[in-house]
Amino acid sequence: MNQDGRLSLEELKQAFGHLGAAVPAYRAILGLCKADANHDGSVDMDELDELVKYAYQLGPPKLTVLFRLASKAVDKQKIGIGSN
Predict the structure, then answer these.
(1) Which residues are CB-contacts of 15 (< 8 A; sequence separation ≥ 6)?
(2) How far is it, in rounded angstroms, from Cα 72 to Cα 7?
(3) Is residue 83 part of a domain?
């Protein structure tokens, strides 16, 4: 994870893979489609709630990994790393 304040499709695939999804790419694509409101190909902090809602439907373990990813992204964003 590159901790740039956004979750890319590749990062989402990795996350869902760690969660044990049978087809992580499928879960990542669905999560991105549901959350990426501005259609930039990633989930930023403003869109994270929708990704969490999607993950919540899949069960609590999915939320744990997404919260870890989000907290890393937030920490980097707070100190200005990875912002344009």
Answers:
(1) 7, 24, 28, 65, 66, 69
(2) 10
(3) no
Q: Would residue 34 count as lying in a domain?
A: yes
Q: How many domains does the chain contain in total?
A: 1
pLDDT score at 60: 62
Range of the domain at 38: 6-78
Residue 33 lies in a domain: yes
What pTM, to 2 d.p., does this model score? 0.68
pLDDT in tens, the chain (84 residues): 567 889 999 999 998 888 778 889 999 999 999 999 999 999 998 999 998 888 878 776 666 667 777 777 666 555 454 444
